[in-house]
Design goal:
Strand content: 5-15%
CATH class of the largest domain: Mainly Alpha
Shape: globular
Strand order of the largest sheet: 1-3-2
Distance between the termini: 37 Å
Radius of gyration: 20 Å
CATH topology of the largest domain: Arc Repressor Mutant, subunit A
CATH architecture of the largest domain: Orthogonal Bundle
Helix content: 55-70%
């Protein structure tokens, strides 16, 4: 269904780029809502599940700071997520020798079991919501979105632009 109809707009979009951005945002919001519904069944948030996945697929040791960078969240946010995961017995922070301010983050046995249980369900859900796309479509969409991210990063690096005069 076209986005304008889905949003119940009276008139079609006049600017295809505006429609594109709103389409991406609207789709991301819908995906996040579907993820929230899935993770709620396991008493987790999307952020908590993402930490568990990163820890499952890491090579070597990761610090809280490493996790924050990989997940693009603030230090306070990663601390809060890790506090909740530790309270659930899913992760643990271990002291780093010679650095009292840094901790390595590890999955506990319970954390490993939890991510092993949820990940197949998560992947099945991803396949269900993208069933209308074949692998070539997914690869093309990934490439298009990468180009948008490059444009965003280049635009941010160039600084704000005022209105054209």
């Amino acid at each position: 269904m076209p986005l304008a109809k889905e949003l119940n707009l009276d008139l079609p979009f006049e600017d295809v780029r505006h429609e594109t951005v709103l389409s991406v945002v609207h789709t991301a919001t819908m995906l996040a809502a579907a993820g929230d519904e899935l993770f709620r069944k396991f008493k987790l948030t999307e952020a908590q599940f993402n930490v568990l996945l990163v820890l499952k697929y890491k090579r070597g040791k990761l610090t809280q700071t490493d996790l924050g960078h990989r997940l693009v969240v603030t230090r306070a946010s990663i601390t809060s997520v890790l506090d909740r995961l530790e309270a659930k017995g899913l992760t643990e922070r271990k002291d780093v020798p010679d650095d009292r301010r840094t901790y390595h983050v590890e999955l506990t046995k319970r954390g490993k079991a939890t991510v092993e249980k949820i990940e197949p369900i998560y992947r099945d859900t991803i396949h269900q919501v993208t069933a209308a796309l074949n692998e070539a479509d997914c690869a093309a969409l990934n490439a298009f979105l990468e180009r948008v991210r490059v444009g965003i990063n280049e635009g941010l690096a160039a600084g704000p632009r005022g209105p054209k005069t």
